[in-house]
Design brief:
The complex is a heterodimer of chains A (319) and B (273).
Chain A lengths: L1 H31 L4 H6 L5 H10 L6 H15 L12 H37 L1 H16 L2 H15 L15 H35 L2 H8 L4 H39 L4 H10 L3 H29 L1 H4 L4
Helix pairs in contact in A: 1-12, 5-6, 5-8, 5-10, 5-12, 6-8, 7-8, 7-10, 8-10, 10-11, 10-12, 11-12
Chain B lengths: L7 H22 L32 H37 L1 H15 L3 H12 L3 H27 L3 H8 L4 H13 L1 H23 L11 H10 L6 H28 L7
Helix pairs in contact in B: 1-2, 1-10, 2-3, 2-5, 2-8, 3-5, 4-5, 5-7, 5-8, 6-7, 8-9, 8-10, 9-10
Classes of the chains: A mainly alpha (319), B mainly alpha (273).
Chain lengths: 319, 273
């Protein structure tokens, strides 16, 4: 148990330098982009006096390292990401509203993709024949279809032609669960197709490896039903690479929300980021990138811890 | 190296890609296609014999625009993957060959880049560099640099310990010569597989970025831009939405099939993932 605790502690410590460098990169974004944040905040109303005022309010006259420390200090100590230039609302408040939307979208997509993809992969590896060929086709075309184009086609079919699902918009889960699901159906479907294909491919390879192990031959020889061989013993041994890929792809799903939320007009973090870029509201851009990158680091951490639990050798420092 | 047969799917991929490439090269040569000609009487008009995909919202021929946009997308994808292969491959080669400090120095930034979701990285890069056809190449290339670096490093690590590499060094071969003549040819296989697969994804990413207005700016035709427009008039002119997407799907599928075929020959250990 103490070894496991040490592994968890070491893994937690390792995320610190990643977060530190990430903060430098995110801070750099604001200072590398062409244009003056003070000018952006004031727009056309600026005069030399107001510009100077805003510059000093935003500490833009300080040396860069001092500005960085002030910004990081604000983020870490007070959870303060600054305010949106355009609306004056604190960025944390905007993120707080947007995050539940993105989380619902991403979690629903990863669950759907995980269930369908791993299911297809396992069946393809265990049964072979037409199921295997069908799975190969699913992998190639599921991967080849761009998710936003799939979104457009789904809108065309389900909203324009058959008018059964809304093409865009958002209803909170606690306000109207049925409408919420209807609004999320198409975006979740889009985001999960590519991932399902990717998971199917990984699961198939991992299962083929797991099922060719001598232990599986023994289980079959002692007469264990094939269903149990595959789903209980095979899948457990194939779980490590599958979990790794699912964790890694969670980041891809978070990135994909930028396009999908914009397309379906869902007020999540991706849409917020997209609008902020268009309006050059760099505090919001920074906040969104910090949040998405932070979530990504968190998911990678959970994935690693899960791997340590699934495969005790990893936790013991062998791998 | 074992001489395994090419799988049939790889031939299907090559044939599909060759057909699409030929169409996009020969199409303009026929002189029948003009992506900029405007016929104001045909705004959003349906297909006719000379214009099988109909017209867009400005009265331009959708097929002509599709062919030109498709070629631009191919060029962007190839250029960005070539950039990523060159930069990422060099980084991976040096890190895997020299190890130690070089490895740490070169690979930590790579790990940092991998810690960002790919599309987010692309969006951030474009925010920094500004919008346009060239920055899309840099942004998409930037997304794939860390992936090439990882894969080439891991194949170089094994190759560099080979006895033939030691033998070359003992014969007095310089580092540059050893890397170029002995290490590179043996460690590049997985990267070639990856090139084919990522070229396909690069087409998707480029289309996605230009779809949200971060790619090539109008009036330059781009597949993503065509889809943005198609989206506005999706009920009136669905063909303008369907065909650019099908072009992407067919191209990516072809490149994936080729990648699968290359894998059985060049990357039997599956380093390219």
């Amino acid at each position: 148990m103490s070894r496991r605790a040490a592994y968890v502690a070491r893994r937690l410590l390792l995320t610190l330098p990643v977060l530190a460098v990430m903060s430098v990169v995110v801070f750099g974004v604001m200072h590398l982009v062409p244009g003056d944040p003070a000018q952006a905040q004031l727009g056309l109303r600026s005069t030399p006096e107001t510009l100077a005022q805003v510059r000093s309010d935003l500490n833009l006259d300080d040396p860069l390292p001092a500005q960085y420390l002030a910004w990081v200090g604000g983020v870490v100590l007070r959870g303060d990401l600054g305010s949106d230039y355009a609306s004056g609302v604190p960025v944390t408040e905007e993120l707080g509203v947007a995050l539940p939307v993105t989380l619902q979208l991403a979690v629903a997509a990863i669950l759907l993709a995980g269930t369908v993809g791993v299911g297809i992969g396992v069946i393809a590896a265990a049964r072979g024949g037409w199921r295997r060929r069908g799975a190969s086709g699913f992998v190639v075309f599921g991967t080849a279809i761009p998710e936003f184009w799939m979104g457009l086609i789904l809108i065309l079919v389900f909203s324009a032609w058959f008018a059964v699902l809304p093409p865009s918009g958002y209803v909170a889960l606690w306000e109207d669960p049925v409408e919420n699901v209807r609004h999320f159906a198409l975006p979740v479907l889009c985001l999960s197709l590519f991932q399902a294909a990717y998971f199917a491919r990984t699961a198939r390879t991992a299962m083929e490896d797991a099922l060719s192990a001598p232990s599986v031959a023994f289980l079959r020889a002692k007469g264990l039903p094939e269903r149990q061989v595959v789903w209980r013993h095979g899948l457990r041994n194939a779980a490590a690479p599958i979990v790794t890929i699912v964790g890694m792809q969670f980041g891809a799903i978070l990135g994909g929300t930028i396009i999908i939320e914009t397309l379906f007009d869902l007020p999540g973090v991706g849409k917020l980021l997209f609008d902020a870029i268009a309006q050059r509201s760099y505090t919001v851009v920074q906040g969104c990138v910090v949040l998405i990158a932070g979530l990504f680091v968190l998911v990678n951490l959970v994935t690693d811890l899960l791997l340590g639990w699934l495969d005790p050798r990893i936790g013991d420092g062998v791998a | 190296m074992s001489r395994r047969a090419w799988p049939r799917r790889a031939y299907a991929g090559v044939a599909l890609l060759a057909a699409l490439g030929l169409l996009s090269v020969l199409g303009p040569a026929t002189g029948l296609l003009d992506p900029d000609a405007i016929d104001p009487t045909k705004v959003l008009a349906g297909p006719e014999l000379a214009h099988p995909l109909g017209f867009d919202s400005t009265g331009r021929d959708v097929l002509s625009r599709l062919v030109v946009a498709y070629r631009a997308s191919l060029v962007t994808a190839v250029a960005s993957v070539a950039l990523a292969l060159l930069v990422g491959g060099t980084v991976g080669l040096l890190a895997g060959y020299y190890r130690g400090w070089w490895d740490a120095l070169l690979m930590r930034p790579v790990d940092m880049m991998l810690a960002f979701p790919a599309l987010l990285l692309g969006v951030v890069l474009i925010t920094i560099l500004g919008r346009g056809s060239v920055t899309v190449i840099l942004a998409v290339g930037g997304i794939y640099i860390p992936i090439f670096a990882r894969v080439v490093r891991s194949s170089t690590l094994t190759v560099a310990t080979g006895s033939y590499v030691d033998a070359a060094r003992c014969r007095g071969s310089s580092d540059v010569r050893t890397i170029v003549r002995h290490v590179l040819p043996n460690s590049i296989g997985p990267a070639i597989v990856l090139t084919s697969i990522l070229a396909g994804f690069a087409i998707q990413v480029e289309a996605a970025l230009s779809f949200i207005g971060l790619g090539a700016q109008p009036p330059t035709p781009s597949l993503g831009g065509m889809l943005t427009e198609g989206n506005e008039f999706l009920t009136q002119a669905p063909l303008a939405l369907i065909f650019p997407g099908l072009a992407i799907v067919a191209t990516v599928a072809a490149l994936l099939l080729i990648g699968d075929g290359l894998r059985t020959r060049l990357d039997p250990k599956g380093i390219a993932g």
